[in-house]
Design a protein that fits this description.
CATH superfamily of the largest domain: Glutaredoxin
Pfam family, one: GST_C_2
CATH class of the largest domain: Alpha Beta
Oligomer: single chain
Low-confidence stretches: none
Number of domains: 2
Shape: globular
Mean pLDDT: 95
Strand content: 5-15%
Bound molecules: glutathione
CATH architecture of the largest domain: 3-Layer(aba) Sandwich
CATH topology of the largest domain: Glutaredoxin
Protein name: Glutathione-dependent disulfide-bond oxidoreductase
Largest sheet: 4 strands, mixed
Distance between the termini: 47 Å
Structural class: alpha+beta
InterPro entries: Glutathione-S-Trfase_C-like, Glutathione-S-Trfase_C_sf, Glutathione_S-Trfase, Glutathione_S-Trfase_N, Thioredoxin-like_sf
């Protein structure tokens, strides 16, 4: 890889580029092998991994349960590093081969829901929760939800990729995406100066979508030392908002679901029952 690359007339894949996730990157879509998805006993079946996009949905499901809604679910692990997202069953649930994907078996035939933002809206409408009823606040929640869906690829796929994952550190790419990540953090910081939550006083799916990305990066939970590199202390309002949400019991459970790295006591690879948080975390499974 050099810095004097001249693109050929027609691009072609030259094999592995050595980067993290290189083995799962292909320029084509569609199933690569036959594999049905497992189905558990609950109406909602989630197929995911505890990346920020996955955590949005498990936080929402745990918040719904915490609030007394009948949102019981099975969460199955999709190991994207192993290519599980290219199995035929997963591709039928999400033709885009990305976690999270959900199937709602409470309707016939079962309904697929993919794209984390779509899943959040689907669940909010299904249970009538975490999307404000007031039209102005509801619109504001949707504004920020869609802001997140459009913005986070610059934080994750742009900044996170080139700062933490790329096999070579390319100053141009890191500069470009750091600039944008910091601009986005400043957008949030200014908004949260006058608002307790993203849509005002009410905690909503907009917070659940934004927190796993921007909240966790400011709190030093994403991309190694990125919080220092981004000088995250200057985003004090984002930090205040992060800290308030981080102590919610549903958030603490939600971020554990489908987690396969870090402290074993915080990893719940699959979630099929509320009691799993007490009995099935990796520290306990490992000793059984
Ligand atoms: N816009 C999608 C993005 C989902 C996404 O990028 N998922 C990543 C993990 S965070 C994934 O499944 N990557 C696997 C792959 O690219 O093959 C959403 O919000 O659901």
């Amino acid at each position: 890889m050099t810095d004097d690359y001249t693109p050929p007339k027609v691009w072609s894949q030259k094999g592995q580029n050595g980067g993290q996730f290189a083995s799962i990157n292909k320029p084509t879509a569609g199933a690569q092998f036959d594999r049905d998805l497992p189905v558990g006993r609950h109406p909602l079946q989630l197929y995911s991994l505890a990346t920020p996009n996955g955590q949005k949905v498990t936080i929402m499901l745990e918040e719904l349960l915490e609030a007394g809604h009948d949102a019981e679910y099975d969460a199955w692990l999709i190991r994207i590093g192993d290519g599980d997202q290219f199995g035929s069953g997963f591709v039928a649930a999400n033709p885009n081969s990305k976690i999270p994907a959900m199937m709602d078996h409470s309707v016939t035939p079962p309904r697929r829901v993919f794209e984390s933002g779509s899943i959040l809206v689907y669940l909010a409408e299904k249970f009538g929760a975490f999307l404000p009823a007031d039209p102005t606040a509801r619109t504001e929640a949707m504004n920020w939800l869609f802001w997140q869906m459009g913005s986070a690829p610059f934080l994750g796929g742009g900044f996170g990729h080139f700062y933490a994952y790329a096999p070579v550190k390319i100053e141009y790419a890191i500069d470009r995406y750091t600039m944008e990540a910091k601009r986005q953090l400043d957008v949030l910081n200014r908004h949260l100066a006058d608002n307790r939550f993203m849509a005002g006083d009410e905690y909503s799916i907009a917070d659940m979508a934004i927190w796993p990305w921007y909240g966790q990066v400011v709190a030093g939970k994403l991309y190694g030392d990125a919080a220092t590199f981004l000088d995250a202390d200057i985003y004090a309002n984002v930090r205040r908002w992060h800290d308030e949400i981080a102590v919610r019991p549903a958030v603490q459970r939600g971020i554990m679901v489908n987690k396969t790295s870090g402290d074993p006591s915080q990893q719940l690879w699959e979630r099929h029952d509320a009691s799993d948080f007490q009995t099935r975390t990796q520290d306990k499974i490992g000793t059984q």
